[in-house]
Design brief:
The chain has 209 residues and is α+β, with helices and mostly antiparallel strands. The protein has a single domain (9-204), classed as NADH Oxidase. 44% of the residues lie in helices and 14% in strands. The chain has a four-stranded antiparallel β-sheet with strand order 1-2-4-3, with helices on both faces. The protein is globular. The termini are far apart.
């Protein structure tokens, strides 16, 4: 297991860049990947329903197959692992698990738990699927960013990839119709620095009222 350098949050957000050149011989253990994901799942979500699932692809032959699905992007094959982030269109089915856990941990009383379960079930189950897709897409964006920052805090590099054939991914990995493949995140150790980028100045995009 690699010993991670302790970094400040300021360091992490300034050092994180999208990396596309990885050391194919460098491997991140599954324990470390789980550590990163345990940090990532602390991200917020709508009504705390956590509408995300992950498929971690670290088998070399499977990554080669995934590369073809992902528009032949080199980092899919050379990174240590690719984490597929899936959005849950039926997040309301998590309601009882989420709120019972909160109750059992002492974060709410039983009456509040029952009310939250009832209200969330009624609200989310009656929303049109298109709206639930938007909610899941928004929340998977939150957790994806947190995942990349968690990885950088441990000294690893990432790049998010939206450019892949989602239908082929669904077929290859037998993804249930409940879930939407949203993003692939390559995770590994850079062999070349990322391309530097600039940002629109804050003064051009901020307004105090």
């Amino acid at each position: 297991m690699t010993t991670a350098t302790v970094k400040t949050f300021n360091d992490v957000i300034r050092e994180r860049h999208s990396v596309r050149k990885y050391d194919p011989a460098f491997k991140i253990s599954r324990d470390e990947i789980e550590d990163i994901l345990n940090d990532a799942i602390l991200a917020p979500s709508s009504s705390n329903l956590q509408p995300w699932r992950f498929i971690v692809i670290d088998d070399q032959d499977t990554k080669k197959e995934l590369r073809l699905i992902a528009n032949n992007q080199e980092q899919v094959e050379t990174s240590s692992a690719v984490i597929a982030v899936l959005g849950d269109k039926e997040m309301y089915k998590n309601v009882e698990k989420v709120y019972k856990s909160n109750y059992e941990d002492g974060h709410m009383d039983e009456a509040t738990m029952k009310l939250m379960i009832e209200n969330s079930n009624r609200l989310y189950s009656n929303l049109p699927e298109d709206i639930r897709k938007i909610i899941a897409a928004f929340d998977t964006g939150l957790i994806s960013m947190q995942l990349m920052l968690a990885a950088k805090a441990k000294g690893y590099d990432t790049v998010p990839m939206g450019g892949f054939n989602k239908q082929q991914f669904i077929e290859k990995f037998q993804v249930s119709d409940r879930y939407m493949p949203m993003l692939l995140i390559a995770l590994g150790k850079a062999t070349a620095p990322a391309h530097k980028t600039t940002r629109i100045p804050l003064k051009d995009i901020i307004e105090f009222i």
